[in-house]
Amino acid sequence: MNAQIASTRTGSGQPVAGRERIEDIDVIRGFALFGVLMMNLAFSLRVHHAAPWENHPPWLPDHIVLRAESVLLANKAMTLFSTLFGVGLAIFLERASASRGDSAAWRLLVRRLLALLAFGVAHAILIWNGDILVPYAVTGLLALPLMRCRTSVLAALIGLGYVLPPLVLLWPPAGDFWNAADPVPFSETMRIYTGPSYLRIVQLRAHEMVWSWTHHYTVYLPRCLGNMLIGVLLWRSGIFRADLSERMRRMLRWVATGGIAIGAGYALYRVILFDVFHAPTPTRGTPLRLFLQVVTVMPFALGYGAILLLLLRGRFRPWLLHLAPLGRMAFTNYLTESIFFTAVFYGYGLNLLGKVGYAAAALMGIIFFAAQGILSAIWLRHFRFGPFEWAWRTMTYGAWQPFRKRPSDGMNFSPVAVKFRDPS
Q1: Radius of gyration for the chain, computed over Cα atoms and rounded to the nearest angstrom
Q2: Given this model, what pLDDT does residue 60 score?
Q3: What pLDDT, on the 0 to 100 scale, is given for residue 407?
Q4: What is the end-to-end Cα distance of the chain in Å, rounded?
Q5: 7 lies in a domain?
Q6: 3-state helix, strand, coil in the chain (%, to 5)
Q7: Residue 75: is it exposed, middle or buried by C-beta count within 10 angstroms (0-12/13-18/19+)?
Q8: Burial level of 148, CB count in 10 A (0-12/13-18/19+)?
Q9: Of 92, 262, 282, 349, which sits 20 to 30 A from 392 (CA to CA)?
């Protein structure tokens, strides 16, 4: 692999030094986290079940926000997020191998992913079943044996992961299984989620989680694996180096313009086709639709990443660095978003499910995300990691990790800070 920052073999059995984190990745992860939050609010938390907005004229805020999110964020933010997870796996393996040796690094990474799996199961059942931690942990475990493969092998596996699911759905039994409706009626689901019983909601969450795992992950996991392997290749390429060559910058400009043109073009085509001309909406799991998502969403997501990398090497860097605390504490921020918004929408909390539309939900998300940014920056002035990041690291290394900062650490997130930090 192409090492970005030299690691020192300490033999101390401690995690990699904090100053080796690449802050640009934190910025991109913070951006992706915002997109994931917006889409979760719109769909995974069932805001789209707010009936009144559907009868509004198309120029009113709910429709405008929905179409903007569909074009700009739907699937793109999640794709970018899972790709960055692959980057993180590659960084962790490289750093841990340099300081501890290969065998110890593999064991640490397996333990890290198993810990994430435990967090994900608890999150999916106790808090919210729109969880991404379980599929990320499972896909990460599948990716581990492949991470040291040659680039040509990884490229072939990426192509297979993208093309295989649409091909499988061409087989009628597989397509019928994928598109099967959840046997719990919609009215019953809404009654439970708007009811006061937390235990009943937990039972329904567990059912829906198992349903998603058995019906949807068979198609989602290969694509997620492809995203993570792309992240591994991106880390090898040196794209995150601070001193990018002119050739690399030119390539980033091509990816930014071409990727977004392809992705936005297809997304706008769908909006015009289905909203303007009112064409029949295709079945969610049709092979052609899945294939078009693959060939348009990934370029769009990579285009976002390329734009951010270019802007981070220019005058906009001080502004974009405000996203770095959010990205560095992405695990904590993701979980706190789940805790907060399930309490806002579900019956055991404020019970707003079905009562607000897309525009109101998006405004709530923007305000909450901004508050998270401020709190994350303040938190990281005093602590090395977010609370859930710290717990995850402690489970990974099997020993209590230092939590509070020492004056000698000298790490901050002021707009002019340009520092490399810990990869995990």
Answers
A1: 21
A2: 77
A3: 72
A4: 17
A5: no
A6: 70, 0, 25
A7: buried
A8: middle
A9: 349
61 inside domain = yes
Angle at 46 between CA 41 and CA 51, to 5 degrees: 115
Taking Cα atoms as reference points, which of 118, 157, 148 lies closest to residue 134? 118
Instruction: Count the neighbouring beta carbons within 10 Å of the beta carbon of residue 404.
Output: 8
Q: Please give the full DSSP string across 278-305, using - where no structure is assigned.
A: -PPPPPTT-HHHHHHHHHHHHHHHHHHH
Q: Is residue 121 in a domain?
A: yes
Write down the mean pLDDT value for the chain: 85
Residue 241: what pLDDT? 81
What element of type H or E holds 375?
A: helix 358-382
Q: Which DSSP string corresponds to 67-107?
A: HHHHHHTTTHHHHHHHHHHHHHHHHHHHHHHHHH-HHHHHH
Give this prediction's pTM: 0.88
Number of domains into which the chain is organized: 1
pLDDT of residue 58: 59
The token duo for 279 is 């064409």
Q: Answer yes or no: is 2 within a domain.
A: no
What confidence score (pLDDT) does residue 61 get?
Answer: 83
Residues of the chain below pLDDT 50: 1-20, 411, 413-424
Judge contact between 112 and 397, C-beta under 8 A.
Answer: no
For 401, the domain range is 18-409
